[in-house]
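example protein:
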Amino acid sequence: MEDAGIYARESPTLDSVVQLGVVGGRVINVSFPDSVPEDAEPDHPILDRIFDYLGGAEDHFDDAPVALTVPTDQRSVLEATRNVPHGETISVERLARLAGLDADDEEDVRLVEKALRENPVPLLIPDHRIEATGATPEDVAAALRRVEQG
């Protein structure tokens, strides 16, 4: 696997570009810019998996090498998000419980929502499966849910 760089390709399925930032062989960010950056390379094994997934292959990406650079309290939320099954959509409150937080505590619910909004690797950590605004742009999130519904 490539050690470091920016990798991107256009996705007609998402009507967007899928871009990865990789450092030390780990994905540090996923974004959906309007165009492929000039310095981006098109070939990376994780991009291949993403495009297979967008084509209908089921992939949980739970083994994708991700480097989470987030505060510890957000890490449990994102790790719980990573365990939401392909094709399912759950509430913020259910995600809070899965992350070991109190779904009835406003502060815990706000923490969950903040972690989702600041998710550095959407799609690999599937915030589109949560009924909340995550880091994935809403039009991309809707397209990802359609892909998973088959």
Summary: The two ends are 29 Å apart (CA to CA).
